[in-house]
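LAB NOTEBOOK - FOLDING QUEUE
OPERATOR: T.R.
BATCH SIZE: 2
PURPOSE: Compare the predicted structure-token outputs for two unrelated chains run back to back under identical settings.
PRIORITY: normal
REVIEWER: second-year student, initials M.K.

ITEM 1
FIELD SEQUENCE / FIELD STRUCTURE:
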Amino acid sequence: DPHSCLRDGSRGRRAGPSSALYAWARRLGEEVGVDADRWSSEHWLSGQWHSGVVGGPDDWGVQRDLKVVTSVLDADWSAHFLDGRAHRHTVTERLTAALGRSVQEWLGRPGGELLVQLGGHGREDLFADLDVSGTVGYFSTAYPFVLPLPGDLNPREHTEEVAVRLARIPDNGLGFGLLRSLHPDPEVRRRLDAVPAPAVVFDFLGETRFVDVGAAEGRLDFLGNPTHHHSGEARAASMPRAALLDVRVSVDDGRLHVDWLFSDQAVPTSSVRELAQAYETALRLGDDGTDTPR
């Protein structure tokens, strides 16, 4: 924000400009055209992308029927959960594994696998001459992941299995969308485009705070209580929903928030509340199957 920099007398401390979104997109397209195999096409083409254990209606509803069930965990427990030094697995691994355990309980199944869509920030450090860390734009990636349900595994064993599968994802999933849209072979594009849409979308958004770019002395500060008044709806009311369940996990003011987005014409609100409670219970169980500190 040049105005804020000049207003606060920080002209000399401005960081260099980030790379343009179009430069990043153009380079990715060129790289796929030159060496498509570099993006691990075999991983995406050989995957068993079956629909998984979640049945439900074929019609997932429309945006006008959107409902949200939210769980907010207390600050002390959240701080312990988010402290990587206190756990053997990453936050993402534990959040994803807990989803598998809660879905198994919710469905009353003995095990199986669930096809989910995972997402990433997309701002990967791929090219020495391109830096998009500060570029304005939407870089997020989306890709399929087969999430194992625990079956007879204890929480520690199940989390380890999920961690192993997550570690196999190449380039944090960036290659799936690139290859599906830009692979030079139309047959590869067709096969990837035929991967079924997962019924469940799962995203860990991290901390959802807005940076105050006008902070003085070069220190980062954060805006409090930003509003979205008069910004309009992001999607048309008649737009079909892209998933049965859209699960968004974030950290706000030091507390873990879990939002479950769904259409109440596709799945009853009471049922989603049961799943949300099962997920919170799964989160609170440590890898050894005992309650973590609250």
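ITEM 2
FIELD SEQUENCE / FIELD STRUCTURE:
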Amino acid sequence: PTYLKLLKINAKVILDNFDFPFLYKLFGGRSLLIKVHHGTPKYLEKYYGLKKVFAKLYAFFLGVLYSYSSRIVDLNIAVSSKVKTELVKYYHVTPEKIIVIHNGVSTERFKPRDKIFARKVFNLPLDKKIVLFVGGDLDRKGFKEALQSVEFLRKEFKDLFFLVVTRAKRVIAHANHVKILKDVPEDLMPLVYNASDILLLPSKYEASLPLTVLEALASGCPAVVSQNAAEEKYNGQGYIIAHNYGEFINYLRILLKNVNYREEMGLRGRNLIVSEYSLKNFDKYVEVVDRLIKRK
């Protein structure tokens, strides 16, 4: 239905965020098509058990259509070098048809604020060290691993508190030092990061630095993330990449022990977002559209 509606629009360029833009061409669409890739179907390989079986079947059929769509559009925009590599390697898109434009977040909306005020908004303890987890797909985002890390460190840090923000319907984590916030309104999400000391994300797959990490860093909240959720070249600039369970424990311990280092990492993360991942990145979309129109 969406592609049929697009046929009625007399636009020079359509910036497409759907999976199968080839349908637009199939129905006779004449506008130039730019497909934006926030990830590829490779994420479906990161599930386990029965879910993985269905995911693999879905990934096979999705991959064929995804590959075809990505090859027939006029241009592909990947949100990271990782996504570009996957498009070339697994979906046979020519590199010349792909450009990389990183995501960006508002540095006015997400910025450092008073921690005590933010904690009072969510009725969080004022005297605890709060580790934050944010994610809807609990399996892929590594919720189990995050919870295990916090539980292990609770033996050493009695004042450790775990805050979980999710849309998932079932979250199993019953303890006095765990609080689960569901369906937090978008306008309150900045305060979630302001209330927290560290973001923890042991994700099994991300297309790039996910918005969760970008928002946390912009808010001055440092992060410990898996190698699947970060770019190596910025490691140490607000976030620390952990490659295994032991490293997650170690890096969390360092940040929890050293408040000065934690604050320094928060400042580095803020500076990284301002310089590399602000909303200015979206100006590049306008430049790309202009170049494509002139070229055609």
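REVIEWER COMMENT (ITEM 2): The first strand starts at residue 13 and ends at 16.
FOLLOW-UP: none requested
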